[in-house]
Structure formats: C-alpha cells, structure tokens
Design goal:
- The complex is a heterotrimer of chains A (about 350), B (about 260) and C (about 850).
- Chain A is mainly α.
- Helices cover about 70% and strands about 0% of the residues of chain A.
- Chain A has two domains: about 140 residues, Formate dehydrogenase/DMSO reductase fold; about 120 residues.
- In chain A, helix 2 runs antiparallel to helix 5.
- Chain A is globular, with a radius of gyration of 27 Å.
- The N terminus of chain A is likely disordered.
- With about 260 residues, chain B is α+β, with helices and mostly antiparallel strands.
- Chain B folds into two domains: about 220 residues, Alpha-Beta Plaits (2-Layer Sandwich); about 30 residues.
- Chain B has seven helices and eleven strands.
- Chain B has a four-stranded mixed beta sheet. A two-stranded antiparallel sheet of chain B has the order 2-4.
- Chain C has 26 helices and 30 strands.
- In chain C, helix 1 runs parallel beside helix 12 and helix 16 packs across helix 18.
- The radius of gyration of chain C is 26 Å and the shape is globular.
- Classes of the chains: A mainly alpha (about 350), B alpha+beta (about 260), C alpha/beta (about 850).
- The interface between A and C is medium-sized, with 18 and 28 residues.
- Strand 3 of chain B pairs parallel with strand 3 of chain C.
C-alpha cells in the first residue's frame, strides 16, 4: 500500500486538492478511478464514481410492446397505402382487378390490425377504452381513431366497389365508392404514417432523434409493400414496377443516411441485435430490392423476387426499430449525451462534470 | 388549486428504505424480485410498476463537503429516495389514449387503474423512466402520490414514514423555496456541490417532486434536461405530411405515366 | 448492563434519544444507530442540523458513518484501547470537569495499599486466583471499608454468578466508610490510580493497534472532550458493537467513566444512550427473561446460606446505605404479587417457593448442557436460536438432544424446522429419523394482535391496544402462559408432593374476557404497578411499598405507571414538554434523564443556564425543573446525613447516584464486577495480534471461552485464519429474519447473504465483485456474495496489514429469501459478568468459490488437529 506520510498508519482526515484533481481527471477520461491503495476498481462495481450515471443502469423504461406491434405497423402501412393506390388507379383508369384487390387489401389489413393491437394490450378486454377520449396530442389516441375511421372508409369504398362489381350500379353506390376511396386514401396515409410519429414522439433517444425519418420510412415501406403484394398477385404493370423502384430507391437512401451518423445515440442502429437486423433488413428492402428489380425486373420471377425482398426487409425493419428502441432505453449515456448537447446548445456552455 | 409536492433531501437521508416499505404496504404493491444486485445496498435498482419509491446508494469519492472520513482517498456515501416526478407537463398523461392518466385536484399525475388497458404508450413517453407495465397484471402503474390519503387529509405514506424528514410533503411553491434555502445553507456549510433538482427550464415545466442532491443529477440517473415528448409532435407530423404528399405524387405519377 | 449499572447505579440508558438535540457532540461507537435505530436517529440528524458534531468510530463505514460529521475506522475488538486513550487524553491534559468529578464521583476516594493494578501484575489485578480463574475482589474495596464476616458460606465476596441485577450492591460491605482526598493528589486516590492505569494508552498505541491514525484519534478526542464543562455536554450512543465482546462490560465501563470525567452524566445532551436491540428488549430485562434477576433487577436467590430464609436473603441484598436499602420492601411486595394471599409473614411470604440459582444458567451454559444431553425440554418463545444463537450450528445439533421442544412463533422459524430442514440434515450429517425431539409449533399473535406495553431503550413504557384479533389459533403470550398455568395446576392439585406448592400458590387473578378467554392485560400492568393488599387500591409509586406484606407490586421500578383507577400512564399520548412527559411513562417515576441531580451544582443551582435541567427551589423547598428529579424531592442540597442514618437518608444532598451505597458515580468499581475495578485492554478470544498491553494476558482472564469439540478457537494470531471478522445487522432485516425474510417488502430489499470486504483484499485474492466466496472459522463455514467496497478499509495493526470482513447475520433456511447462517461462524463464549457471546473481532479465512467447492480446504482449516487458542 502506497504510503507517503511519516507514520506508518497515517491517513489524511481530508483529501488534498491534488488528489481530488487527479481523481476528477481520471474519472473524466476513463470513467473509473483506481483507488490510491492500488486496487483495480474495475473489479468493484460499488466504487464506480457517480459522475456518469447511476451504476450504468437504464434511466428510461423499455417499450413493452410485443411481436404484434411491429407486425401491425407493417400490415397497417400496407393497408393504408393500398387505398391510395386504389384511388390513383381509379382516377387514372388502372386495371379494375387491381383496384378490387387493393381495396380488399385495405379492408383486410384494417380488419387484422385491431386483432394485433388488442392482443398486445395488457388488458385486451378493455380495448374499447381507447375510444373514451380523442387526444390530438397523443399519437396513440389519434392512431386509434385513424384506424377506426380508415376501417369505415375502406369498408365504404370496398362495399361500393363490390356492389358495382356485382352489378348494383347506381349514383349512390358510385358516390359511396368515390367518397370511400378518397376518404380511405387520406386516412390510409394517416394510418401508414402516424405510426412513425407514434414511435418518434417518445422519450427514447434513438426514436425521437429520428422522428423526421420514421414517418417517411414507414410510409415508404407501406408504399413498396403494397405494390409488392399487388405484384405477387400478378399485377406486373408499369405502375407497380415504378412504385417498386421508387420505394426501394428511397429505402436505399434511408439506409445510407442511417450509416452516416455514428454518435452514441445511433449505436443501436449499428450494433447488437437491433443493429444487425436494421442493416440486413435495410439492405434487403433497399439496395437488394433495387438491384434485383434493375437486373431482373424484366421477368416476372425477378419482379416477384424483388417484391419478396422488399416485403421481408420491410417487416424485419419494423422489428429492428423496436429492438433499437429497447437498446436505446437501456443506455443512460446516450440519453445524457443528447441532453448535454441540448444544454450546450441552449446555454452555450458545456455542462460541468465536477 | 393548491399543488401538492415532495421535496426529497439527500443530505438528511439515512438510506433506511422506510419509504419503500411504507409505500408498498399502503398501496399493496407486489414484490419486485428477490435478486441481489451487488450495487451497494440497492437491490431495487429503479422505479417501476412495482416500485414507487426507490432509494439510491451512491458510493463515490467525495469531491466536496466538510465531512471528515479517515480513509486514504476521499469518500462519501449518499442516499436519495427517488419517486415519480409528477411533472408539470407529463409525458405519460399526454400519451395516454384511454384517458386513464389524469391530473388530480392536487396537481399530481394519477393512473386510474380501472381504466388503463395496458397499451404501454405511457411507458415510452416518460422522460424519467418511471411508469411501467406490471406483469402479469398487464396495466401500467406508478406512484399515486397517495391520492387516497391526501383526499383524507393525510400525507403520503412515504413522507409519513421517513424518520429524518428527508421526504417533505407540502405545497409546491413553499417547498421550492425551502429547497433553495436548503441548498444555500448547504453551500455555506461547505457542500459546494449541493443543488436543487427541479427542471423548470425544460418542456417538462417543473416537477412536483423536487430533490436536493449533492453532485450531478446524472449520478442519480436524473436526466439533466428532461423533455416531454410532445415537443416532438410538430416536426414528426410535418414529416408525415410532407412524406404523404411525396407518396401521393409517386403513386399518381406511377398510374399516370 | 453492569457496565452502566456499576458506574451509575442502574443498568439502563440514562437518557432518551430526543435529548440528543441538546448535545454539543455525539459519539456513536459500537453502534450503527442509523441502520438499527432509524427512528431514534432522527434526533441525531436534527442535532447535527443544529450544529452538533456527530462522531462515528466503527470498523465499517456504515449508513451511520455516511451521515456523521467525522468517521474513524477501528479494529474490531480494540475499543478499550481507543476509549482508554480518550481517558488518558483527558487525564494527561486535565480536561476533566473538575468540580463535577470531585463532588459527584469517587475520584477522590482512597484505595488500600494492598491493591495492585494490571500495570503492576502484567495484566491482572490483585486478588487473582489462577486456579479458580476468578478474582477475590476484596482488595478492590475502598480503604477503611470493612467487609462483614462471610457467614453466608457462599462464594467469595464480589464474585457473582449473574451480573444483571442490583449492580454494585454487596451488603457484606459498608461502602459509606471511605476516606477521600478532595484535592485528588493522594497517590492512592482513584484519580491518580486511573492516571497510572491508563498512562500507556497513548495516541501512538492507538495508532499502532487500533488502526486509527494519530491525527484522526486526536481530532475525535479534541472534538468530544471539547464538548464538556458547565456550558457543554456530549452524549455517547452504543449498542451491540460494545456489548457482544468478551470484555463488553468493561468497554462500556470505559465509556461510562469518560462521561463521569467530562461531567456529562445526568445533564441535558449528555448521558449514555445504551441502544437496546428490538422494540421491547428493555422490557424483557425489566420483567426479566434473565436467569439471575427478579423483576426490577432484584437479585435471584442462590442456592447457598444467604437464601435459607427471607431474612438472610434480605440481609445479603440490602445495603445499609443508598436506595437499595429499600430492598426488603421490594422483595416482599414482589412476593405478595406472585403469591397473593398464600404469601404470609409466617411462610416468609412464599420466599421458599422461589427457585434458587445453582450456577450459571445462562443461554450459553444451558445450551452446552443441552448438547451434553442433560436437558429434557425447552420452550422457545420469540427467539430463533437456530439462527441467532452463537455457534448456531452447534445449537441446532443440540436441539436434537432434547426430548421435546415447544416453539411459539408467528411463522415456522428455523428453530422449529431444524429437524428436517437444517443444513446439517441437508448435508446428511443428521437424519430426521434419528432426532428424537418432539417439536410442538404453536401459533403466536403478532404485536398488533394483542394488548400490552413495549418498554423501549429509553425506559419508556408505551401501551399498545389490540387492533385486530389474531388469526385462527394464534394467541398472545399472556393467553398462553395463563392457560398453561391453569392446566398445570389442575394436574398439580391432584399431586400431593410439596414441590407443587409454589405453582399452586401463584396468583393469576386476572379477569378473563371474550370468546378466546384472554386475560385482561391492563390488570397485569396494574399488578406490576402495585396496590395495597387490604383494599386493592393502586399505589402511586414505589415510595408507598412496604416490607410488611401490606403491599403487592410486580415490579417496583414500574410502580407509578398505573397510579390510580383507570389511569394507565403508559397509554397517555399528550406530550407537554421537551422531555415528553405526558406521552407514555418512563421508569423510574417518569424520570426521563436519570441522575439529573448532577445537572445542578452541589449547592443546587444549575451548572449553567444553557444546561439547566433540575435545580433546587429554595422557596418551595424542593427540587424542580424540566424533568422529574431523580432524587428525593425534598432533600435540600445542603443536607448532611445524621450519624447512623440508613438508606437514602444516609446520602448527602450532593450525592446524585442514589442507587449506590455512597451516592457517587463510580469511576472505580469496588464491588459488582468480576473482571476488574477498572477496565483493562484485552484482546478478543481470537485476535490477529498478541495483546500489546499485556502480552502474558491475551484475553479477558475471567471470561469463559467454553472451548470443546465443535466450539474450537483459532490461535491468536493464526496463519490459517488471517482476517478479522465482525458480524452485524442491516436495517432491512430483523434479527434472525423470522419477521423480515418472510415478508416480501423487506425480503426483496436485501435478498441474499453477502459479506463486505475491502477493495484491497478483493484484489489480493482476485475476487470479483459479487462472486461467491466461503467464509470459514474454526466453528463453521458459510457462503456469501462478496461485496467489495471502500467502506471496509485494511488497517495497519502492529506493523502489518490486517483485513476486516463484515457479515450480516440475518439469513437462514426458511422464508422467501434464504441464505447461510452467519452465526455458524461464532463461538459459544461467556463474558464474565453477563455471559454474552463475542460476535465481533473473531478470526476467519476467506476462500473463493462456493462452500461445496471448498470442501477439502474447509476440512484442513477446521480439523481439530490445528492448535487451539490460549485460554
């Protein structure tokens, strides 16, 4: 034991300023302090100095959502955008079978979505409580109403369309269908994009730092996914090809942007389970889907392959974002780094560490 | 409306955990796991659905303060009882889609357990990591500020049990003033790193559970600049709108061309 | 208890925790007050906020240390060195409160030439008999004091088999005939003898053998001694860190002496707060569960000539002077309470029905008898010796030698389940089919399920009203004892043998009420208060008790708690002053700060305005003030006892320590202790060093280490057991864990057993924080998580590094959270005055890995072939 005083057992009743400074420097640089007695405190968790965080425990709580929720994002996105495609096809004289399928996808998706959501609830039997309030400041409240409204609108559109399909044409039905298609398209867009807002407007650092990206990203996956399914149904028309290219292209861009920023907040996007899933799924729905479509988009097999790549990538990407959220919630340093940056920006000073 | 508040003072806390136990007894909160953490004397680790008062134990080199500790290196052991902040602008309240989370007439944030359906959105909306879902119950739980006790004219169980008055219960502005006076007094006594934790300058809009701490808030896992996530809504919805317009353009173009 | 009892007269805390608000300095030592008395600790915090300097001296940096102004480490077992050093500091620098010391203590009393100090005899006092290993204490008496002829034919003067009662009383001596030198210069006056005795307790000594730097020690000394004199007072708080030692009583004595030297006794903010363990432990020595005491600390009769008749018993226990001269009134009133109408003058009030002590009947002693198969049965109520007993492994094995055992508990404790669930059974060392003990587990009511009082550390009785009925068959102790008695006397009535006479004579005339036929607890309290027999009128206090059988009183010190019909003072809840009068009732006579006569000068005026407590009111001709005077209210300060006066009348108006025959505070204890009139430093029974003070006397010479197979000791020092072990409590758990490990809210706060080691030891042994380690002593081995922390510091002792290891003792094999039993490591040993075991300052070794993985090493370490300790 290092002794630097006269008597063999002397300790200082108070610390010397030098020793304190030494400790502060060591703490800032390494995050740990080796005690003067020479013991390596990496073996001793209880001596971690408290300047950085409380024993590196999580500050925030991890999302509690289970596997149904990312699936809901995926299906809801596709359902929502399907109604936009249906409307566009309706407006610009796309093939009627395509319209029909798209409308069925919209309602079909809208019907499965509540099952996923209700199943994820802690108290499923109380799902109707979601309709007790309308809170525009809560993306989840908005989402509930969007889903309900979208279901109604897409039912209206589909009912109208089916009636027309089975020959019950009249002005009311046609109006019904147009109104349904328009309203379903608008609410469908909301359905496909609000989930990005839902995820982005939270306390989780990696989520709220990507709140601009997430709605766009989720919409794109709805877009590409919708077109992909239509392609798998056999609608290998220029429209779906073009949408396929656009979606894969945007996703490639998104993937590129995500790789650019490597701060501590972004760590879950590049490391661990979430990071790998993010990369693989991003690659599949981005560059791979793009390249496959480029090289083999001439053939139906090629287009089907590109479609499947996109769908798989998009689905996995939803999971990656949830897992990234969990990892981000677990990381106190990311949260503090974010807030230190905010304090610095606001006050023009570096928050002191002493 | 008088606003009820907590002021929790680390400098008179003795780490006895009476607050944790009193809270659990009064509110019939279930156990939260029998796992030894090795993190000093803190086996509770964090607030959660089944822990509404959490006593922290910080073993650290003393960087300030008049305490005389006969050790080779300066040392201190600080205790602090953490609790739901009952924010002025509460992330959980804004997020709740069932209206289960409400502001009470004493200014606290209350989760009505008979309404909550366990959607989990409050969990990711709390900037302090307080509220959580309880398994297998399924609902979200957090400190109720002993609303039932307050309604009967009593103070919360934790404040009642605290033997050293580390947990003070009272009116918000009075406690805020008391806290600042306390910090000034501590600084005079040589605790140069004493401070109040009461983030009034961020979007959270001040908290109704304030703390007197020594050192940085990060050491206690208290966020130095907590924000209520509703501040992110505008930019997120804007992005959604813009993206939606772009999408319409793409889809229309696809069918037009 | 005798530490305080012999020094001051009564064995209990001399003040209340709330009085700490008046202290200028508080020394907490041998205690972790914040963790173990968190509610009482609020006054320490409040005092600190007002500017009081809180000092904590302890082997570990605990939650008390965290909030103290000053913390200083200490090698477990070196307390007398440290405290002796403080006394030496006071004496060498003349820091004592001279006027107080001269008038209120026996500092000026002259001791005969025949006395020889440990400094003269290399570690023993004069009177040492190396054959019997006991002292003849007659050479410790004051000069000129005569000892009566020892016609009782019993043990030699002063040697007591039990030290819990009537401290400092020996009726065969007349201490009032002492000689003094009020200038304190006489070479054989107590003051000078103390100076000589403590001369070698220097700061250098303390640094070298306690592990405290000189500066830190002197800092403590200056701060604490500075809180002395007419304007200032300091208080001492201690607990089991002092009592559970082989020299525990002497440690407390040293502190008590220091408080007398500094003039802190009987004054606001002064005194000694003996922090007793759980909520009513004070009550369980007042109405004793101790073998050697009758209620109110009256001596138990011994099986010798002194107890042949009531008269001889009274003669042996009633000194001529001092308050204990009232002994006959108290013993007769107690007998009347026990035996009611069956107790008459003719039959010595039933005195012969009382059992007699035939030797050492303490827990340790009878448990060893149990181990040797000499006991048939045992009632275990409110205790869990399978976990809490010393050498608990041996205690569990001993339980298997009983024929029957009754356990009354709220849960199935380890004591009740030992026969199928103990580690011995699980390891195959014992088989349930070979254990012949018949175990009866009876459900007991919890504390909110019955009426009654708690008597806490400040001698305060507080009544509790039953809130709910106990569930199912659970019943209160009162119910159990009462109905057991009822059934026993049914049998006894049909059995003509004279041995049943006492049982049949017992009075249990309580009203029985309710469906469950519960004795009315308030009537028991009334009985403890006492009444006049003829008209059953409650007495107002012990002053009304008589020796002629006209009064009955279950416990003289409780007399006054129920002074009139319907007035249960223990149930009063209207405090009217800073001392809390009007909330509960403290014995004796609701005096909150005892010995408070000493808060006034010899002339009766307060020492200072700032520290006034009681004073003489010349106009009203009585003592008055903020507390009930602990003094005869009408005795003026100038009172001079007439020749031949007896009892309290024999004490002058300036003698505050009224229980003592000479009325003085005893720096020097002439009678009442088995191991010395002054404290001397001895090492614990296992120590890392040879006794630096007296190398030829390693441990307390009068202590009993009870070494035998299964209860062996390491040598001092011992290369196989290089570390010093101390055991302790945590806030989150309660003693042996029966009430905390079974409750989820508490169990989850500290779910697993851990031991605390220094960072340096962790590095040396390459122990990772949190990993399993095995702690081993000569008695047992347990596994625990290693919690390495700065709060344990290695100390430099005698030139080498000594590591201390701490282990909490709360875990056992039942409940929601389980763990190994800490007390398996401790030995069965007996401090010479009170028989308490030593739980701090043992030697141990620490092995990495779980117990099972270390089986071979354990065998090597614990084999009896290794050397055993020097006795």
């Amino acid at each position: 034991m290092a002794e630097n005083n006269v008597s063999q057992n002397s300790r200082r009743a108070r610390a010397s300023e030098e020793r304190l400074e030494q400790i502060r420097r060591e703490a800032l640089e390494t995050g740990r302090v080796a005690s003067g007695a020479g013991a390596d405190s990496s073996a001793t968790v209880s001596s971690i100095i408290g300047a950085e965080s409380y024993y590196n425990l999580a500050v925030l709580k991890e999302p509690t959502w289970t596997w149904e929720v990312p699936l809901y994002f995926f299906v809801g996105g596709i359902a929502g955008v399907s109604s936009v495609i249906a409307l566009a096809a309706q407006l610009f004289h796309g093939p009627a079978p395509l319209i029909r399928v798209a409308l069925w996808m919209a309602l079909g998706g809208a019907s499965i979505c509540p099952v996923f959501l209700i199943s994820d609830l802690g108290r499923p039997s109380r799902f109707l409580n979601m309709l007790r309030v309308f809170k525009w400041r809560s993306p989840m409240s908005m989402g509930t109403w969007i889903l309900v409204t979208f279901s109604g609108c897409s039912f209206m559109a589909l009912a109208g369309n089916e009636l027309l399909y089975f020959g019950y044409a009249n002005e009311l039905v046609t109006t019904l269908r147009w109104a349904g298609e328009f309203s379903a398209a608008i609410t469908g867009l909301l359905l496909a994009s609000y989930t990005g807002v839902l995820v982005g407007a939270t306390a989780i650092p990696v989520w709220n730092q990507h709140r601009h990206l997430l709605p766009a990203h989720f919409l794109t996956s709805g877009l590409g996914g919708s077109a992909a399914i239509l392609e798998l149904f056999g609608f290998l028309i220029p429209a779906t090809q073009m949408i396929g290219f656009a979606a894969a292209g945007i996703e490639t861009l998104v993937g590129f942007v995500l790789e650019l920023f490597r701060g501590v907040v972004e760590a879950p996007l590049h490391h661990g389970k979430s990071g790998w899933t993010m990369r693989i799924s991003g690659t599949l729905e981005g560059p791979v889907a793009l390249v496959v479509r480029l090289l083999w988009g001439g053939t139906s097999t090629g287009r089907h392959a590109a479609a499947i790549c996109f769908l798989v990538g998009a689905l996995c990407s939803r999971y990656a974002w949830i897992w990234a959220g969990r990892a981000s919630a677990r990381d106190p340093k990311a949260l503090f780094a974010l807030q230190h940056a905010a304090i610095e920006a606001r006050e023009g000073r570096v928050p002191s560490r002493a | 409306m008088t606003l009820a508040a907590f002021l929790t003072d680390a400098t008179v806390c003795i780490g006895c955990k009476a607050c944790e136990v009193a809270c659990k007894e009064w509110n019939e909160v279930p156990e939260d796991g029998f796992v030894w953490s090795g993190l000093s004397y803190d086996n509770t680790k964090a607030l959660g659905a089944s822990t509404w008062r959490h006593v922290m134990f910080l073993e650290q080199p003393a960087v300030a303060g008049p305490q005389q500790v006969d050790m080779q290196d300066p040392f201190r052991w600080i205790f602090l009882s953490d609790v739901c902040k009952h924010c002025g602008n509460a992330g959980c309240l804004e997020a709740c889609p069932t209206g289960a989370i409400v502001r009470t007439n004493v200014g606290s944030v209350l989760v009505q357990s008979d309404v909550c359906n366990g959607c989990g959105y409050c969990v990711v909306s709390c900037p302090f990591g307080v509220v959580d879902k309880r398994h297998p119950d399924g609902r979200a739980f957090k400190c109720t500020f002993c609303y039932d006790r307050q309604s009967a004219g009593m103070m919360p169980a934790c404040a009642k049990a605290c033997p050293t008055q580390s947990i003070r219960f009272g009116e918000l502005s009075e406690l805020r003033e008391h806290g600042h006076a306390r910090v000034a007094e501590l600084q005079q006594r040589g605790y140069s790193d004493a401070r109040m934790y009461d983030p009034e300058e961020t979007s959270v809009g001040g908290v109704h559970a304030m703390f007197v701490i020594l050192g940085q808030p990060e050491a206690y896992n208290l966020p130095p600049a907590p924000e209520v996530p509703t501040i992110y809504l505008k930019s997120a919805w804007t992005s959604a709108l813009v993206s939606a317009l772009v999408l319409i353009a793409i889809v229309f173009a696809a069918f037009l061309l | 208890m005798p530490g305080l009892g012999t020094t001051f007269g009564r064995g209990g805390a001399t003040t209340a925790p709330s009085d700490l608000l008046n202290s200028d300095a508080i020394l907490i030592m041998g205690s972790n007050m914040a963790e173990n008395h968190p509610v009482g600790f609020q006054w320490v915090i409040d005092a600190k906020e007002k500017g009081t300097h809180v000092l904590h001296v302890d082997p570990r940096f605990s939650r008390t240390s965290a909030v103290a102004n000053t913390w200083v480490p200490l090698r477990a077992g070196s307390d007398i060195l440290f405290l002796g050093g403080l006394i030496n500091h006071i004496l060498q620098n003349e820091l004592d409160f001279r006027e107080y010391v001269v008038h209120y203590t026996n500092a000026s009393v002259i001791i005969p030439e025949s006395f020889q100090d440990t400094e003269d005899l290399g570690g023993v006092f004069s009177g040492w008999d190396p054959v019997t290993k006991k002292y003849d204490t007659s050479s410790w008496l004051y000069e000129g004091v005569k000892q009566a002829e020892n016609e009782t034919g019993g043990a030699k003067a002063g040697a007591t088999d039990g030290g819990h009662a009537q401290h400092g009383v020996d009726s065969r001596t007349d201490l009032s005939t002492y000689t003094q030198d009020l200038t304190l210069q006489h070479p054989r006056c107590v003051y000078q003898l103390m100076k000589k005795h403590f001369a070698r307790y220097t700061p250098e000594m303390i640094e070298r053998y306690c592990g405290v730097s000189k500066e830190a020690f002197l800092n403590v000394a200056n701060i604490y001694c500075g809180a002395s004199g007419p304007e200032k007072t300091g208080a001492i708080c201690y607990a089991l860190g002092w009592t559970q030692h082989s020299s525990g009583v002497q440690i407390i004595r040293t502190a008590a002496m220091m408080q007398l030297l500094l003039g802190n006794m009987g004054r606001p903010g002064g005194g000694i707060l003996a922090l007793r363990g759980h909520a009513s432990i004070q009550g369980s020595t007042d109405i004793p569960t101790l073998f050697d005491s009758l209620p109110g600390y009256l001596n138990m009769p011994k099986f010798d000539a002194s107890s042949k008749t009531l008269a001889s018993f009274i003669a042996a226990n009633k000194p001529r002077t001092g308050w204990w001269n009232n002994f006959d009134k108290y013993i007769v009133s107690t007998l009347k309470a026990f035996y009611g109408d069956a107790a008459t003058k003719e039959n010595d009030f039933g005195f012969n029905w009382l059992p007699r002590l035939t030797g050492d009947h303490s827990h340790q002693a009878y448990w060893l008898d149990m181990m040797d198969g000499k006991m048939d049965g045992l009632f275990v109520m409110g205790q869990n010796p399978a976990v809490a007993g010393p050498n608990s492994g041996m205690e569990r094995r001993a339980l298997g030698k009983l024929k029957w055992m009754v356990v009354r508990e709220m849960v199935e404790t380890e004591t009740a389940s030992f026969w199928y669930d103990s580690p011995e059974v699980h390891r195959g060392e014992l088989k349930p089919e070979n254990i012949g003990t018949e175990v009866f587990l009876l459900p007991a009511a919890g504390h909110v399920e019955k009426d009654g009082t708690f008597t806490n550390t400040q001698r305060l009785l507080q009544w509790r009203e039953k809130a709910v009925d106990p569930p199912g068959d659970a019943r209160s102790e009162n119910w159990f004892i009462y109905h057991l008695w009822r059934r026993l006397i049914e049998k006894a009535k049909r059995d003509p043998r004279p041995r049943n006479a006492g049982l049949l004579a017992l009075t249990m005339n309580y009203t029985i009420e309710g469906e469950r036929r519960e004795p009315v607890a308030e009537e028991i309290l009334e009985e403890l208060n006492g009444w006049t027999v003829a008209d059953h009128k409650l007495v107002s206090g012990f002053g009304e008790l008589k020796a002629d059988g006209s009064t009955a009183c279950g416990c003289w010190i409780y007399s006054g708690v129920f002074p009139s019909e319907g007035r249960n003072r223990a149930n009063e809840r209207a405090p009217k002053d800073e001392y809390g009068h009007g909330w509960g009732w403290a014995w004796p006579s609701d005096r909150r700060v005892i010995y408070n006569r000493a808060s006034a000068k010899p002339d009766g005026s307060p020492w200072s305005e700032r520290k006034k407590l009681v004073w003489w009111d010349e106009a009203a001709k009585k003592w008055t003030g903020k507390d009930v005077p602990d003094f005869t209210a009408t005795k003026p300060p100038t009172y001079v006892p007439p020749p031949g006066a007896e009892g309290d009348a024999a004490l002058a108006g300036d003698k505050p320590y009224i229980l003592h025959a000479d009325g003085m505070g005893w720096l020097w204890v002439p009678v009442g202790l088995n191991d010395g009139p002054l404290p001397a430093h001895y090492e614990p029974l296992e120590s890392p060093i040879v006794n630096p003070m007296y190398p030829d006397r390693q441990a307390n010479p009068v202590g009993l280490n009870r070494a035998r197979p299964g209860n062996e000791y390491a040598s001092s020092p011992d290369p196989k057991f290089p570390y010093v072990l101390t055991t302790y409590r945590l806030t989150e758990h309660h003693t042996a864990g029966g009430m905390s490990r079974t409750l989820s809210h508490l169990a989850e706060l500290q779910p697993e057993l851990f031991c605390e080691i220094s960072l340096e030891l962790a590095k040396e042994l390459q122990i990772e924080h949190g990993e399993w380690v095995t702690l081993v002593t000569k008695r047992g081995a347990i596994e625990a998580h290693a919690l390495s922390t700065s709060r344990i510091q290695p100390l430099q002792i005698g030139g080498k590094t000594v590591h201390q290891i701490g282990v909490p003792f709360h875990w056992g094999y039942s409940g929601l959270v389980k763990g190994d039993i800490g007390n398996d490591l401790i030995a069965i040993s007996e401090e010479p005055n009170v028989r308490i075991m030593e739980t701090k300052g043992l030697l141990c070794n620490l092995l990495v890995g779980r117990r099972v993985d270390n089986a071979q090493k354990l065998e090597e370490l614990q084999s009896p072939a290794a050397e055993s300790a020097r006795a």
